[in-house]
Amino acid sequence: MSEAVLQLRNLTKTIGMRKIVDNLTFDVPAGEIFGFLGPNGAGKTTTIRMIVGLISMSKGEALIKGVSVRSHFELAMTHVGAIVENPEMYKFLTGYQNLVHYARRHNGITKERINEVVTLLGLQNRIHEKVKRYSLGMRQRLGVAQAILHRPSLLILDEPTNGLDPAGIRELRDYLRKLTKEEGISVIVSSHLLAEMELMCDRVAIIQGGKLVDIRSLQEARSQAQTKIVIEVDDPAAAEQLLAAAMDGSRLTVSGNQIELIGDKSAIPHITKLLVASEIEVFGIHAVQKSLEDQFLEITGGEMIV
Amino acid sequence: MSSLSKLTRNENMKIYRRSRTWIMIGFLLLAIALLSGIMKWDESRVDHSNWEQLLEGQNAGLQQQLTESGEIDEEYKAYLTEQIKLNEYYLEHGINPHQLSLWSYVSSSSNLIMLVTILTVVIAADMIAAEFSWGTIKLLLVGPASRSKIMLSKYIATLGFALLLLILCFAASFAAGGLLAGFEGVNQPLLTVQNGVVHEGSMIIDTLKTYGFSVVSLIMYVTMAFMISSAFRSSSMAIAFSLLFMLLGNTLSALLSGYSWSKYLLFSNIDLTQYLEGGTPLRPEMTMGFSILMLAAYYVAFQIIAWLLFTKRDVAA
Known about the structure:
heterodimer; A: alpha/beta; Alpha-Beta Plaits; 4-stranded antiparallel sheet; 29% strand; B: mainly alpha; elongated
């Protein structure tokens, strides 16, 4: 991972007495998909809008490829492609005209480049139709086409999966992966769909009350995550006694016919042998990996999201 | 970084790719056709065969008025002699003043600049507010163009639309006049009497002068609508308020003309023709210079307010 494409330095937004975003400082390196997680009102959208200049910064700085958004807005924005919430288009224009409208604002976007992007996103058959006749999925694709038309170094997506069906979400995910791998683009995504973020992102920043709570790599999180082992038996009381003695000290919880314990996957064969030897009927044993959602809820104290 | 000319092309695309714009243009052309048609119809009801006798008779009547009553004031006397001079000129050159010429149609089209103003105000009021209504404002602002540049491109496109309508208004009424009264009337001079001598002036310059005065009020109303557009984030609200101010403003100024402070109102100053010959200023102490100064002050204020509203506010919704 090379030089940081996005750097936030003490980014702060104050409205009245309230700090909506409080001293955010972190870097996003090139080629990374970086997720923004947080409960509603945590300041995700405000942060993103400060980065793209829709909302003024009260304090601090955002640098895109080392260029300050505050003092050199136009230059900094040449490196940014964005879809802020649902991609809104000019509905009375055709898809192609929308792309031309976008292309005119940047230097050096040729007709060939427009056609290339249109083909890349599979829009070539309907690009000359008015956008008001597009489905939401097609508008989303046109939105992505716009955002990448000028080959940005940083792609910013605010709630990009809103209103997309599962196929559309998957398509977007695959496409983002391809972009980061092949073109070295960094992507910032904010979403409330945790499962999606888990599949999409390399790293996530968890924000709560405008403050940065944690940044974690999902790769690490996956390997470090403790596994929960769930065992279904006919006699949970006997099994609990047996396992409590055998697994010394590990946490056990019983609910109905199920016993849950925290442990490593490698303990499963041993547990099975023990149970079978004690003639306890085993209906099933399986390992459950802690999801990002569980971790997230742990960190933010179980506050409701969505 | 975006260039201003490309941004303006974008704004033009957004104006002229909407069917609404073309309905407006069609409406203006229809109004011109209708106005010209009515003028022609009205003219055709009068018998013009004996216009020379009529003029002679009129002159004799005027002459009689002039000699009979020595008590009438000087101004009216001067007016009567001017009329006599003009009528003599008409007879001499074989011009029937009651017959409509090409320029009669063109100069009456200047009444339709009010319509041009209304249509442009609708476009101007929509210019910024519509981006908020459509939700495209985020798309527009997140890019390598400063907000000031985007705003300027929108203002230029709006004035461009006004200019297009003015040219269409002039050209269409010129064409209608030519078709209904003949294109040979294009060389007809503007006749004025100065120091007892009939002068031939240029009709086109006179018409452009009429247009010019109307353009002053057009620019003021459009700039006001533009400011309202950046204040409201719904285009229907912006259009409604702009038209309301525009249509009620004149009535308001007339109602308040008894108070001396009413001379500082925009609407009291917007019509500069009140200072021309034959016009009465709204208040006796008002002069053309004063009004131009007031209009300039309002113009600057509108621009500054619009700029502050557009560039300094957070786009949060």
